[in-house]
Specification:
CATH superfamily: Thiamin diphosphate (ThDP)-binding fold, Pyr/PP domains
Number of domains: 1
Structural class: alpha/beta
Distance between the termini: 31 Å
Strand order of the largest sheet: 2-1-3-4-6-5-7-8
Order of helices and strands: HEHEHEHHEHEHEHHEEHHH
Helix content: 25-40%
Number of helices: 12
Shape: globular
Radius of gyration: 18 Å
Largest sheet: 8 strands, mixed
Number of strands: 8
Length: 296
C-alpha cells in the first residue's frame, strides 16, 4: 500500500462524535479501526475517547467498546485477550488510552500485561496532558508548556515512555502521528499481525490544550516531525527502522522554534528552556540514528 486512497472505505468511527473541533485523537482512532476491522474490541479507560464516543445509549463507534477505570485498561485487555484466545477466537483486543492513563496512572497495568506476554495492542494517543479533565500536566507534558496546573510552564522534561516500554522487549512497538495517517494505518496492520504484546505511541495534537487554531492540527503534527520533536520509527523484534517522513526530516531538521511559536502553550517558555529542548531533540535524533545503524 503506497497511497492513502488504498485504505479501506469502511468506517467504524461515525461522524457524530463529541470530539472538539480539530481533534486529532478521533482522526487517529478512525485509521486505527480501519486497520483493525470489525472483529475488534476497544478497551478505553477514562480519557478524551471515553467522551468522544458519545452519551449512552448512543455511540459513534461501530465496534464493541469496554469502558474501564483509569488505571485498568491493560489489565482488562489482558483478561479479555486470554478469554478470546481460550475460545479459539482471534478478535483484536486494542487498549486505546491517553497519556495520563498510560504514562502515569496506568503504567503498572501496562507493565504487567507486557510482562505476561498478553496478545494485544496497546495504543497511547499522546496529547501531552490530561485533556479530558481540563489540561492538567501529565508525565508526558513537555518542558516549558503551560497547563492548568503549570501556570508558569512545566519545569521538568517529558517522561520517556518508549524507553519504559522497550525495557519489556515487546516483539513490536512504534511511534506514529495523526498527521501521517497512512504510516499509522500500516503500523497498526503490522502490529496486529504479530502475536504477543504490541505498543504504538501516537502524537495527537490538541487545539484547545495546545492553544492553536483548530484548522492547524495536521500542520502542527507535521511540524513536530519536521523539527524532530517527534520521530517516527518502529522496532520489530529489536530492529529499529526510522519511518520515511522522519528519515527525510533527520537529514536537516527544522529549528524547533517553528513548532514552539505555533502553540500558545509555550508562550511562557524561556530561551534557556527552548535551548534545552533543542539539545534534547538533537540528542534523541542521534540516539535513534545509532539504534537504526545497530551501534547501540
Amino acid at each position: 500500500m503506497s497511497t492513502i486512497s488504498e485504505i479501506p472505505k469502511e468506517e467504524y468511527l461515525k461522524p457524530c462524535t463529541a470530539a472538539c473541533a480539530g481533534c486529532s485523537s478521533s482522526l487517529c482512532l478512525r485509521y486505527v479501526l480501519k486497520a483493525a476491522g470489525p472483529d475488534t474490541v476497544l478497551v478505553i479507560p477514562a480519557c478524551c475517547t471515553s467522551v468522544i464516543q458519545g452519551m449512552y445509549p448512543n455511540t459513534a463507534f461501530n465496534v464493541p467498546v469496554y469502558n474501564i477505570a483509569f488505571a485498568a485498561a491493560a489489565a482488562c485487555a489482558s483478561g479479555m485477550s486470554r478469554a478470546f484466545r481460550s475460545q479459539g477466537k482471534k478478535t483484536n483486543v486494542i487498549a486505546y488510552a491517553g497519556d495520563g492513563g498510560t504514562i502515569d496512572i496506568g503504567i503498572q497495568a501496562l507493565s504487567g500485561a507486557f510482562e505476561r506476554g498478553t496478545d494485544f495492542l496497546y495504543i497511547c494517543y499522546d496529547n501531552e496532558a490530561y485533556g479530558n479533565t481540563g489540561m492538567q500536566r501529565s508525565g508526558a507534558t513537555p518542558l516549558g508548556a503551560l497547563t492548568t496546573t503549570t501556570p508558569v510552564g512545566k519545569t521538568e522534561f517529558k517522561k520517556d515512555l518508549d524507553a519504559i516500554v522497550a525495557a519489556h522487549n515487546p516483539p513490536y512497538m512504534a511511534t506514529a502521528s495523526s498527521a501521517y495517517p497512512l504510516d499509522l494505518y500500516k503500523k497498526v496492520k503490522k502490529a496486529l499481525s504479530i502475536p504477543g504484546p504490541k505498543f504504538i505511541h501516537i502524537m495527537a495534537p490538541c487545539p484547545p490544550g495546545w492553544r492553536y487554531d483548530s484548522d492547524r492540527t495536521i500542520e502542527i503534527g507535521k511540524l513536530a516531525v519536521k523539527t524532530g520533536m517527534w520521530v517516527l520509527w518502529e522496532r520489530e523484534y529489536g530492529k529499529v527502522t526510522v519511518s520515511g517522513p522522519s528519515k527525510t526530516a533527520m537529514k536537516k531538521p527544522q529549528p524547533i522554534d517553528e513548532y514552539i511559536k505555533a502553540q500558545g502553550r509555550f508562550k511562557a517558555a524561556t530561551p534557556a528552556q527552548i535551548a534545552e529542548l533543542q539539545q534534547a531533540v538533537e540528542q534523541n535524533i542521534e540516539r535513534i540514528r545509532k539504534e537504526e545503524e545497530g551501534i547501540c
